[in-house]
Amino acid sequence: xxxxxxxxxxxxxxxxxxxxxxxxxxxxxxxxxxxxxxxxxxxxxxxxxxxxxxxxxxxxxxxxxxxxxxxxxxxxxxxxxxxxxxxxxxxxxxxxxxxxxxxxxxxxxxxxxxxxxxxxxxxxxxxxxxxxxxxxxxxxxxxxxxxxxxxxxxxxxxxxxxxxxxxxxxx
Length: 171
What we know:
The chain is mainly alpha-helical. It has eight helices and no strands.
């Protein structure tokens, strides 16, 4: 298998990207179809209640496969007319047309809204997990690579126990 040049994408990765784009397009088509129709299935409307549920939606006959929320956001930003914000605006308009109360009853709960504190905490936890994952990978690389060992040592010196810490700041 030949090596890739800078800027090239492997065929398998490109196929996965194309499949996820098709799945996002199918979600957009489903939203537009639901907006036009008068009879709406509560189960189908329920898929648009929150982003996690929309991302995990799986309906292969419509071409909808589960995606990560990050991938869904990325493709919506590129594919949807007004990006992710436009998609969210259209979904909220659609849900406010009276379908939301029916769906909340059929699902058995009301959709919850995340506060900015919860969103910030989620983002901080995700970034911390990514940082720890990268640190673990660098540690494994440092076993075989001298340059990685030097980088890890420099990072450890910079952010050792004497260095700055993450602290919880109360409001």
